[in-house]
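Example complex used in Figure S2.
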Amino acid sequence: MSAVDTAPAPEGVQDRDLLGTVLRFRAVGIVLALLVLVAVTTAVNPRFLGAQGVRDLLLGASVTVLLAVGLTLVVITRGIDLSVGSTLGLSAFVTGSVLEAAPALGVPGGMVVGLLVGAACGGVNALVIAVGGVPPLVATLGTLYVFRGIVYFVAGGSRISASDLPSGFLAFGTARLLGVPILFLVALVVLAVAAVHLGQNRSGRDLYAIGSNPEAARLAGVATTRRLVGAYVACGALAGLGGVLYAARFGTVDASAGSGLELQVVAAVVVGGVAIFGGSGSVVGAALGALLLTVIGYSLPVLGIDQFWSQAIVGALILAAIGLDRVVSLRAASSSRAKASHVR
Amino acid sequence: MVRSDQPVLAVEGVGKSFGAVKAVEDVSFPLYGGEVHALVGENGAGKSTIVKMLAGVHRPDSGRILVDGQPLEVDQPRDALAAGIAVIYQEPTLFPDLSVAENIFLGRQPLRWARRINTRALHAQAAELFTRLGVRIDVERPASGLSIADQQLVEIAKALSAEARVIVMDEPTAALSGHEVERLFAVARSLRADGAALLFISHRFGEITALCQRVTVMRDGRHVSTDPIEDLTVEEMVRRMVGRDLGDLRPKQDVTPGKVVLSVRGLTRAGAFAGVSFDVRAGEIVALAGLVGAGRSEVVRAVFGIDGRDSGEVTVNGRAVPAHKPRAAMAAGVALVPEDRRQQGLVMDLSIQRNTTLVRRGSLSRFGLLLGGAERRFAQDWTARLQTKYGSLDNPVNTLSGGNQQKVVLAKWLSTEPTVLIVDEPTRGIDIGTKAEVHRLLSNLAADGVAIVMVSSELPEVIGMADRVLVMREGRVAAELTRAEVDERSIMRAATGGDVAA
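Predicted assembly (846 residues):
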């Protein structure tokens, strides 16, 4: 092949650095915010950073991290799953009931039950969205109420208390490995698997492709329906697993378990830098977002700041995160425009 | 040049209907390795349908497509690529968030253990493809922000990576600058030298004669002829495409200009253009010529108020038009038909009717509601005046061909009965027949006393249509040429700031 006229120096190197810096900056920013918050809180109350304090924090974050990882899979495809809170509630209640009836199943059995319940819920979402073509926001808003309704129906006003659950299961909720709560380790393992899948597996990259340009994904022969079904089922299954952790941690489950959790998880994902219109973001970012929100929730009372402010701060963080994305994309667009015009 | 007797691709008696409309009927032509084959025809002649059948988007109703003598069985685009057919569209559909390398190899990324993507090999293979193409693109950067020319090269690299032997280019040059066209042609020639068969679709005859060896002409969904390029003059090609002689190539009627309608004084926008002044009289067509990026579109956008201005003033009929207020410009009688009809001129998913009436919806509504009747009559009236071809007014506008889409945009703005009409690249990407209609229309409007500003990159259009030509260079008006002074050389000299090799 003959060499042809070459373009000037590779274009876009600058862009990538700019974007790269900001994206790294996003993770760095969250970590910095975490450090500052922890430092200030510890200065006020040294016990905040004590072994027990940290353990409480990690325990509290486990469920949100788990759900944020699951939701990220879906949001990357331009989707959303608002039913994760209800799925968690249903899974927690069903798992609790099954373990109450058959204590011999133990922790592994409980996990399987929870995962299955969650996967079933995710399957319903997947069916409505990927096969039925209903917009995810509407579909999962519907299933949010449907799944919660099922919990109320199954529970019928009853609740599961710690005395009903096998002791081994409750012990799992408070168990530690090298001082780290097992529940948090479960979330970390899930996080690692999801990170590798999204970053390095073809099917994971397909999710980004679908979110980045659905039409191009179709033209490129990406099995869009199958991938979307996979993402929603995985998201549901992780919410189901979250239900198991929830039950193990609190020991008490009533029909309202996990109510309102979905918005907290969406907030974590957005703050963690996952683009709400799909195509970019990482589970690690989402997990950091979840951790940040959890730390805010724990530290503000210690600092003696009204609960009201906690919500306002979360809101401000979401706006800041979205504003940052907007600024970055405008910057990138204008810098490439400037380049294009001076080249010609 | 390699040329075997067995065609790499053979289209045999292919037909395709959509509902009652026969888009393509009994079309046959062979495509040989080592040749670039032009497919020409007016919009609506069925070229796009042929392309979509090759791409695996549509299945032919009758006839068959053979690749290396084997019938092509495709259900989806990926099958076509697997069979060795790659299609490069005018505006490629890439994944903006993924890297260039990932865009090329999506779903086919090289793997290492545990089915994980081998990123290093991925980047190396992508870089190797661009080396083969002789162009330099950073394969690790995201695809967002790539120019259209570079995006097409990414698509070509994708075709190479899939070892495609048939490469279909559907109007690839429509949005490219001269330099980019040359680079694309160099790539196309080297692909041809490697024995690939290229199907090249374009409305630009200069490009066709420069690049192609044979040409197939289509008209009204039927095959007209397939000939070696040297056996066919451009005039003959045009005659076969339209089935009639086009007549006057200088369609602008002579009109005695009236009073000054639009006056622009010292218009400046930092970074885009500076000190731009001109007048447009009633009945006059003033063309803004120049190279892509010279600031022509930016000037008209600022005149219409889409972009702000740093200094300078715009008056219409003696009244000042405030900066950065398109509504005020519209109220003053200015209409702008933008450059990019898909992005700026139309709401692609909205019906033809709604698009036509969009800027008049206020006057067509009663008590704030758009109740069918008046809107429909209005849309029927205006689409008929512009001879727009459509199935139903309720169809989304994206179902129309490019030329008919442009007519909808024109209908929308003409319905405001403007005194100043600004058209930015009015005939880009539309076929020669519709082009002539648009030219006639502009000429008639001028004869009716409308002041017209036309931005155009096509020199024949500028020369044929304009009473005066303002040539822009690097954001400034470099020359003002009267009709008598205008020719390709004078424009190019002013646009480039020096003598050009003809």
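Chain B touches chain A through 49 residues (CB under 8 Å). The mean pLDDT of chain B is 85.
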